[in-house]
Amino acid sequence: MLGHGGNTLGFSSRMILDLEHGIGYIVMTNQSTEQNYNFQMPELVFGPRKTASKETQEQFSPGYYRTLRNFNQGPLAIFKMVSGFANNWQKPSGDQRLLNNFWAIYQSKGKPHIALGVADYEKISDFDFYKDFIILGSGGLGIIYALGLLLISLILGAYRLIFRKKQEQPDHVWKAWNILTAVGVLVFPINLFLMFVAQASGDFSEIAQWRYILFAGLGLFLAGCAVYPLFRKTRKGLGKGRLFLTVLTSLSALAIVANILYWSLYQWWVM
Hints:
Strand content: 15-25%
Number of strands: 8
Distance between the termini: 36 Å
């Protein structure tokens, strides 16, 4: 039995050939509800569909399984966070893909794998599943802080300008460092958003090297911003409020650097 299928928005095709019995079928549709034309078509032509054997189902191990159709390594791995890259399978009967399709279990690199007709799935630990969200969440907190810092600085600056309020002992270097770091942090989601837009539109510019060169340069810039206060001689003269903001600004920069390193977004040479 040989088969191949694929689908996009509003179009799908499926071909299945039974070489032993000399029968097969091809279905091609271009309707928005194309699944209606493919539903139970194999059963109509070939008879009842086989499912996993009882022995295979007894070998099933519950947990998180991620599809190997996604990029799980390299600069494009972050795209898997947009779609459901992992499934929490507790029993075979709890998911339609396992309940109604034939599948097998095999071991690879010490991990259980489930082979389905359209993709293989690799079991991952709970820690491996949640750490992606933890790293991305830390970057999200850094982005929220940087955006808030810039908005507050803009509002306070406008307030002082309108009401002619003078700031006591302004530290222009410290203020410039905060603003530049916050701007650098916000460059990360902007470039990432433009990548997702390009990927969704299908113009393939999400794999342009310049995007990842920008991430590499941004990582170096933010790493320098994060450690800058450690080498500043006047840091001991900061008040408690400014010292607290300094720590938060440095942590927001480090969170973005951690995301760039974790998702390998700096590796422009592999694109």
